[in-house]
Amino acid sequence: MLRSILTFSKAQISSFVGGVVDYGVMIVLTELLHVHYTISIVFGGIVGAVVNFSVNRVWSFYSKEKPYKYSVFQQLVMFCPVVLGSIALKSSGTFALTSLTKIDYKITRLAVDALVSVCFNYMLQKHWIFKKRY
């Protein structure tokens, strides 16, 4: 139980670090370069995903150590559709919530990110990508 809580906590910290990078890229592209925020979310998501995968593999899930079911290459291949799904959920969710509520995209993005991070990304990473053999 304690190990599960620790893994979840580490994964959320990793998600936060990747999310800060992702959010920062989105803000720079949208506010400084005037790219529409839904497009900025895609580019931010890609950069944030690289950070998130790296931190999760080494620190959150200790995936460099055995007994992990998949190699780093297999994990990367599996991670790609998860990232694409996550980016699609974040971009469309932010657009929908912003359109419906008329709240600034910077705020709705945070709400959508929190939901996608816990309910989608963490579950797929823990139970599929970084799954242990036993």
What are the key terms here?
mainly alpha, 134 residues
Any idea what the shape is? elongated
Order of helices and strands: HHHH
What Rg is obtained from the alpha carbons, in whole angstroms?
Answer: 15 Å
Helical percentage: over 70%
Oligomer: single chain
Give the integer mean of the pLDDT values.
91
Class based on secondary structure composition and strand pairing: mainly alpha
* Main β sheet profile: none
Unreliable sequence segments: none
Report the portion of residues in β strands: under 5%
* H/I helix tally: 4
DSSP summary, beta strand count: 0
Provide the fold topology:
Layout: H1 2-32, H2 37-60, H3 72-101, H4 105-129
Helix pairs in contact: 1-2, 1-4, 2-3, 3-4
Description of the molecule:
It is a single chain. This protein is an all-alpha fold and 134 residues long. It has one domain (2-129). It is 82% helix and 0% strand. It has four helices and no strands. The protein has helices spanning 2-32, 37-60, 72-101, 105-129. The protein is elongated, with a radius of gyration of 15 Å.
Short note summarizing the structure:
This protein has 134 residues and is an all-alpha fold. Helix content is 82%, strand content 0%. The chain is elongated.
